[in-house]
Amino acid sequence: MGCVFCEIVAKKVPAKVVYEDDDLLVFPDIAPAAPVHLLLIPKKHIVSIGEAREEDVLLLGKILIVAGKVAKLSKLTQGFRLVSNIGRDGGQTVFHLHVHLLGGRGMPWPP
User: Fold this and answer.
1) Predicted TM-score (pTM) above 0.70
2) What CA–CA distance (Å, rounded) separates 90 from 25?
3) Is position 96 annotated as part of the catalytic site?
4) Long-range contact list for 104-111, CB < 8 A, 24+ apart?
5) Edge-first strand listing for the sheet containing 99-103
6) Can you tell me the mean pLDDT for 80-105?
7) In the prediction, which pLDDT does 1 show?
8) What is the model's pLDDT at position 85?
9) Pick the catalytic residue: 37, 96, 98, 100?
């Protein structure tokens, strides 16, 4: 099986897109861990932040800027958390870079 996030980018697998531009897609996680749980993914296939290259620096920065915009649109005025799992030991299950935006409840540390 191919990359499910690439299939979502290609519109072969449906997702409820809440934000899209030329570089990124944002949609709800299918197994939410918070009242607001969105995934921010680049349309370009990059395995993880650990595999990103120097040429991806603007794209990685854009993910953070869009996360802030989407958090405001989601009315997360009390704060939110961004998480990117990297590799199997880091909890990554889909090997296409993605950032989880979680909010709508307290986020104690450690998680």
Assistant:
1) yes
2) 23
3) no
4) 104/34, 104/35, 104/36, 104/74, 104/76, 105/34, 105/35, 107/34, 107/79, 107/80, 107/81, 111/83
5) 19-20, 24-28, 36-42, 99-103, 80-83
6) 97
7) 57
8) 96
9) 98
CB 26 within 8 A of CB 40: yes
Structure tokens at 41: 């993914």
pLDDT recorded at residue 74: 97
Q: What is the pLDDT of residues 13-72, one digit of tens each?
A: 999 999 999 999 999 999 999 999 999 999 999 999 999 999 999 999 999 999 999 999
| Rounded Cα distance, 90 and 106, in Å | 22
Residue 111 has pLDDT above 90, yes or no: no
Residue whose structure tokens are 């531009």: 21
